[in-house]
Design brief:
- This protein is α/β, with parallel strands linked by helices.
- A seven-stranded parallel beta sheet has the order 3-2-1-4-5-7-6, sandwiched between helices.
- The longest helix is centred in the middle third of the chain and has 15 residues.
């Protein structure tokens, strides 16, 4: 197959850079355009020195890219910025494939988007078209899509752990408590006081308590699986490591046992290349998936009667962002889903 010509919007951010890292060794991809308006004119290796060995195009302003020459574009821009740019790209090249790693097209309901993101959606005609890109749940729709809204890192970890259980009616979806922790790359690369080494190091801090925007995605997809509206208790925390994510979900059982939950997850992911359910007594750990597109899920019985604890971990920049986007790109181009994504976790 001829290599697909790929562009990356927002290549100077962490998700954009991880897309470059993975696509640079993808056998069917050629990176031909990189945008970063604040770094326009620079070599990628000036912004990310670990790319010193790669021959990459220089960073340019997005308006200067000839989108008609590209087969696909990955978008690592912030929410709000993305909508109008993607609309402009698709107007220029209606046949291009879009892998959006921002939050702009993840929510199906326009009122929900306005509520959580503080403004009306500016590309409603595309919002209706977008496919939620949690690969394991929407594989067939992703394969046929032009615009895929790749999930957030927290929702990916939580939904892979809980959607099969909600669909099988094994848990009470009205009683879900999620304790989530993410490495500091989840906050982006911009200069923020709370992510400075001396502020984030040697500490653990919650943020956006009861109001994190990823709650909307989690509720949307668990609700779709359960067939009813859902509200979850979701609290994220910043943990002092560069990458990685761990979600602990506390659930009430619907006449099931923790072993039933594990069995259902094993059944759901028996043929999935990247999702692994740990054996009884084996606990997921962030170091088992660091730098990889793999997910580990475990189930433990709670000491409280009729409750269980579901554990899930992934790399927030890979399966939680750029890796999942590439997984979706592979499907959209009819490639083997695992192409360019079979790296083993980096340990120690």
């Amino acid at each position: 197959m001829t290599k697909k010509k790929i562009g990356i919007l927002g290549a100077s951010g962490y998700t954009g850079a991880d897309a470059v890292r993975l696509l640079a060794r993808h056998p069917n991809a050629e990176i031909t355009a990189l945008t970063a308006n604040t770094h326009a004119g620079k070599a990628m290796s000036e912004v990310f020195p670990h790319f010193f060995m790669l021959h990459l195009p220089k960073l340019v302003e997005w308006e200067k890219v000839d989108w008609t020459r590209l087969d696909a574009v990955f978008c690592g821009l912030p929410h709000g910025t993305t909508q109008e740019i993607i609309a402009a790209v698709l107007k220029t090249n209606p046949g291009i494939k879009i892998l959006d790693m921002s939050a702009d097209f993840r929510l199906r309901d326009k009122d929900s988007y306005a509520q959580w993101y503080g403004h009306e959606h500016r590309a409603l005609e595309l919002q209706d078209e977008a496919v939620y890109g949690l690969t394991e749940l929407y594989r067939e729709k992703v394969t046929a899509a032009r615009l895929v809204a790749c999930p957030g890192c927290y929702p990916t970890a939580v939904l892979l752990a809980l959607v099969p259980l909600a669909k099988a009616k094994l848990i009470d979806v009205d009683d879900i408590i999620i304790d989530a922790k993410s490495g500091v790359t989840g906050a982006g690369r911009g200069l923020k006081q709370n992510t400075l080494f001396s502020e984030a190091g040697e500490g653990l801090s919650p943020y956006s308590i009861g109001s994190h925007r990823h709650s909307a995605e989690i509720e949307q997809e668990i609700g779709a699986a359960a067939g009813s509206a859902v509200t979850v208790n979701f609290t994220p925390h910043l943990i002092p490591m560069a990458r990685g994510e761990f979600c602990t979900s506390y659930v009430r059982l619907n006449g099931a046992t923790p072993d039933d939950l594990r069995a259902e997850l094993e059944r759901a992911y028996a043929n999935e290349p990247f999702v692994y359910v740990t054996k009884k007594g084996v606990l997921p750990q962030t170091q088992n998936v660091r730098g990889s597109n793999y997910v580990q899920i475990g189930v433990v019985a709670d000491r409280i009667k009729n409750r269980a604890i579901v554990l899930s971990t992934l790399d927030n920049l890979v399966k939680g962002s750029a890796g999942q986007a590439i997984q979706n790109m592979n499907l959209m181009f009819g490639l083997p889903e695992t192409t360019g994504l079979e790296q083993i976790a980096l340990f120690p």
